[in-house]
Amino acid sequence: MKRKLYKAGKAGFLIILFGILFSYAMFQGGFVSWFLFYSFLPFLIYMGGLLFYPLDDWTGARTLSSGLIESGEAVDIEIELRRTIPFPLYFMKIKESYPETLHLEVRSGEGVVTGDREEKVVERMIFPWFRRTVRFHYRLEHLPRGSHQLGEMYIRTGDFFGFVKKEAVINAGGRFTVYPPSRNVTLSLGSKGFGQGRSAAANVKERHSNMVAGLREYAPGDRISWVDWKATARKNKMMTKEFEQEKSSESVLVLSTLSSPGNTAEFEGAVEFAYSLMLKLTRRETRQLSFLSLGRAGKYVTSIHSRRQQEVIRYHLAEVYPDETGGFEEEMAKGHDRLPAQATLMIISTELDESVKNSLLRLSPSGRNVVLFVVMFHKEWDFTKQKHVRELKEYGVRVQVLTEKAWKRPEFEVEV
């Protein structure tokens, strides 16, 4: 309704202006009056045409320079605008306001992850004139991890004098995912190592010297020499031998997403460390690794063998966000039945409170080797948290704190 009233008002104004100029030329006469009338007539015709020109005729599409983007990197976006009616447009202002998920800037320079919220707005001024297709590009830098849905573009144009102004919205669409970055992890063995599997063999010959503990279904990554052909023929599906050493070297990587939304930098660091540690452990042939994330959008992936399973975890880590709806004890209790007996638990968290401490104290007597990685700023490492660490260590739970000093290094150095 407002648009119709605006158009009617502007059309009435142009008609009145035309009438005034024509009346002046008719009654005044002479070269000057008619010169003014004919000089201004093209502008009146243009303003009238622009007033009724359908700006909704424009359509847009976005093209990304790369489909594989990691947190902190940049991406080039090309915008292509098309139309069917080649009406001359003196200028066109384009504005893009990005969703809240892109307002966070992640700067990973010098190995330090910091998060600053800054609204991202891109504005461009172009001069299409008669062109049916217009292209331009820009760069988005310091992209935050996550799945981002690009929305609408706002275009605005007008005449030479600003009497007629028109606006329209273009829904160009576009969705892309920014994955967590990975960094090399240097592992050093602690006093307990990785449970009973610390002395696991690093080569195939030593692995074959172990006692066969049972059979399991074939998983991508298993060697052909491990296949039990008799059991395969009997069950009509590929079966591989499960060695005693293989059972004793099972590990579970647990990521707690239970964090306050205000702990943005710590949470991003925890996700990066979880992904880097997962890649490091899956490259070691002597270890079976499972992955569990705690929270409302929790996920469990057992026995990571294939590249596809790694990609599933990577995509999950790209979309996970801090969850403050649950408690660590409750979420850990829900996932307790999934955790294999005698497995090494490597837990990554941005919190170390009473709930986390009590939950880990209940896990320690069960025979599991428990390692807790706490990601937080040094200023938050207060007396209460240090007291929790001392209590956990008394019960055999090893705790490592990753502060800013750890993030300044080019690689993670942890003791397991």
From TrEMBL:
Keyword Zinc: no
Signal peptide: none
Residue intervals passing through the bilayer: 12-29
Keyword Cell membrane: no
Pfam families: DUF58 (PF01882)
Keywords of this entry: Membrane, Transmembrane, Transmembrane helix
DUF58 domain location: 215-382
Entry protein name: DUF58 domain-containing protein
Organism of this sequence: Salimicrobium humidisoli
High-level lineage: Bacteria, Bacillati, Bacillota, Bacilli, Bacillales
